[in-house]
Design brief:
It is a single chain. This protein has helices at about 5-30, 45-60, 75-85, 105-110, 125-130, 140-150, 170-180, 195-200, 245-250, 265-285; strands at about 5, 35-40, 65-70, 95, 160-165, 185-190, 205-210, 225-230, 235, 240, 255. It folds into 2 domains: about 30-115, 3-Layer(aba) Sandwich (Rossmann fold), CATH 3.40.50.10860; about 140-265, 3-Layer(aba) Sandwich (Rossmann fold), CATH 3.40.50.720. The model has no long low-confidence stretch (mean pLDDT about 95). The protein is globular, with a radius of gyration of 19 Å. It is α/β, with parallel strands linked by helices. The relative contact order is 0.16. Helix 7 (about 170-180) links the parallel strand 5 and strand 6 (about 185-190). The structure holds NADPH dihydro-nicotinamide-adenine-dinucleotide phosphate. NADPH dihydro-nicotinamide-adenine-dinucleotide phosphate (NDP) binds near residues 189 and 192. NADPH dihydro-nicotinamide-adenine-dinucleotide phosphate binds near residues 231 and 232.
Length: about 290
């Protein structure tokens, strides 16, 4: 039986610490950090992620403004909205909820967010910072994954073998680099990977970010593996939330494992709160 890496609990503890920190910042600088979230359209999943972020801001004492724009918003209109937020001295962090409607190019939008307000860590210069080991903001999900792995008692990442399944810009690739920087030997698998099972069976750590319900099966893991399930899917049979890992099958073999919900999701939001505090501190320190 595996020990559950409880993202909900870990994030609760970290948010309690952040609440104290935010109150101290508020007293010192006369206002708390302020996060602006922009939501274009009314995709139910995006709406629920935005609500989660609003709730976390409230818990930690971070001031939050959510700007809701219609599904028909043009790229130009969204750029104007971002320009206003960039210029507003009372806004510290900006997050544009992805995905965006097809008429809007994500790269253009991410690029338009002021580097110093890019709490998602998706701006090309933050991405470059991660790869060049320069000061930067880490993207929230990989940062949360690392926090989870570091919470395992008496577990050193040094020299471990990890397989990250998925190579997206927001999860797979930055997770690869952040693990590499922790002296983990990392392989990245994707849809064209041959003999995936052979690769995953060699891993001490598996990070699964595929977006396919219950993708990772018992025969793909070796006993004692640490499993981080990033996926957020609907189980086609029950319509309940489920991850990319077949939890029933894999949990008995793993040493540590995350659950969906309650694993990586809350840690992603926790990292967002940390990044918002970080950008605030940098901005007020500049003045
Ligand atoms: P993407 O769709 O961008 O990437 C999925 C990756 O999985 C791709 O690299 C793809 O390969 C790979 N893949 C697909 N099929 C296979 C296969 N059969 N074998 C091996 N690899 C495969 O997804 P994201 O990275 O954005 O998200 C992944 C999951 O994580 C989703 O369920 C998403 O909802 C969830 N998520 C959760 C977050 C959280 O906070 N918990 C945050 C962000 C995402 P290829 O590149 O070849 O197409």
């Amino acid at each position: 039986m595996a020990i559950i890496l409880n993202g909900k609990e870990i994030s609760k503890e970290r948010k309690a610490q952040m609440k104290i920190q935010v109150e101290q910042l508020r007293q010192k600088y006369g206002r708390p950090p302020h996060l602006a979230v922009v939501l274009v359209g009314d995709d139910p999943a995006s709406l629920s992620y935005v609500r989660g972020k609003e709730k976390a801001c409230l818990e930690v004492g971070i001031f939050n403004t959510t700007i809701r724009l219609s599904e028909q918003t043009s790229e130009k209109e969204l750029l104007e909205c971002i320009a206003e937020l960039n210029e507003n001295p009372l806004i510290d962090g900006i997050l544009v909820q992805l995905p965006l409607p097809e008429q809007i190019r994500e790269f253009v939008i991410i690029n338009a967010i002021s580097l110093e307000k890019d709490v998602d860590g998706f701006h090309p210069r933050n991405v470059a910072g991660l790869y060049l080991k320069q000061p930067c903001l880490y993207p929230c999900t990989p940062k949360g994954i690392l926090t989870l792995l570091k919470s395992i008692p008496d577990f050193s990442l040094d020299g471990k073998k990890a397989v990250v399944i998925g190579r997206s810009n927001i999860v797979g690739l930055p997770t690869f680099k952040m693990l590499l920087d922790q002296n983990v030997t990392v392989s990245v698998a994707h849809s064209k990977t041959e003999n995936l099972q052979e690769l995953t069976q060699s891993a001490d750590i598996l990070v699964v970010a595929v977006g396919k319900p219950k993708f990772l099966k018992a025969e793909m893991v070796r006993p004692g593996v640490v499993v981080i399930d990033v996926g957020i899917n609907r189980d086609p049979q029950t319509n309940k939330l489920c991850g990319d890992v077949d939890f029933e099958q894999v949990e008995p073999l793993a040493s540590y494992i995350t659950k969906v919900p309650g694993g990586v999701g809350p840690m992603t939001i926790c990292s967002l709160m940390e990044n918002t505090i970080e950008v605030f501190e940098k901005r007020v320190a500049k003045k």
